[in-house]
């Protein structure tokens, strides 16, 4: 199937631009063989900017070939893979179009550890490629999947590469589910979004690490629509850098009340969450955090609601606490949503670099759908 896209952008007298994309795809017919599918494609993308800072007006030309293959070895076992290879050259690393993607724009959004590649990619040639393979096995309510991906980015004489291994094991039942996910990322360009996150320690990915890894286990129990419980634990770390190892565990419970006369609708909802974070390295002087979040919502009518919430966090390593309290009143219609929000926050002094903070904030949100 052919594909043609044309997009113009006006961003000032010297920032006007035009982007075009011509592509073609060929794919298999599932009616002939439902257990095997494939796709192959080619795309030519050109962007031109009237940026006066560029000698040639900012013309960038990109060629892309890609493909995908999936095969059912058995009813419960599926394997497959996909690959992309993109080569581009010209001036104007930044994408001048709103929607038509070029490799230069994709490369700019990879990670901060690719900055040295990006800095050299303003002019000249760019090359990007990736190869991914997966094995997916499912048996009744149990699922098991393994993915492997190799990526590389090249600009002039600088090359960055990354290898990613991901594993997921999950089990679902009528009232509960269990989800276990693990990632291993190896390579110079090893910064990548992690499965495990830290809300209070400020633990960031170390881009100088030769490898980073994480693992997260989530247990969900929902006996009815009125209540639910979630238990989450995770651990992550890095090798060859200063990221250290971090651990987090939390539990969350909610309870809902419904009206029983006439149309059944939600009347109130209460929730609480308690968690703990711990790291072997200190971040802003913190190496551990204990937090709690509590909220209550009331729905007097189908479209009107009120919400009160509070959040408390303690940092034993620096002997400090922080508190956030929020109140919200809102109207929720199908095509119109209005909410007024007031928040008050206080954080105790941790050090000379992190002084005491007191904040108040008013916010009004309006969203109209057409």
What labels would you give this structure?
18-stranded antiparallel beta sheet; 2 helices; 370 residues; single chain; 65% strand; globular; mainly beta
Count of helical regions: 2
Write down the Rg. 26 Å
Secondary structure category: mainly beta
Helix content: under 10%
Write down how many β-strands occur, each being a DSSP E stretch of 2 or more residues. 18
Report on this model:
With 370 residues, this protein is an all-beta fold. Helix content is 3%, strand content 65%. The protein has an 18-stranded antiparallel sheet. A hairpin with a 5-residue loop joins strand 11 and strand 12 (245-258). The longest helix has 6 residues, at 103-108. The radius of gyration is 26 Å and the shape is globular. It starts with a strand and ends with a strand. 19% of the residues are buried.
Q: Strands, helices and their partners?
A:
Elements: E1 2-9, E2 17-27, E3 36-49, E4 59-74, E5 77-90, H1 103-108, H2 115-119, E6 125-139, E7 142-155, E8 158-172, E9 176-187, E10 211-224, E11 227-239, E12 245-258, E13 266-283, E14 286-298, E15 304-315, E16 320-332, E17 336-347, E18 357-368
What is shown here, in short?
The chain has 370 residues and is mainly beta. It has helices at 103-108, 115-119; strands spanning 2-9, 17-27, 36-49, 59-74, 77-90, 125-139, 142-155, 158-172, 176-187, 211-224, 227-239, 245-258, 266-283, 286-298, 304-315, 320-332, 336-347, 357-368. It is globular.
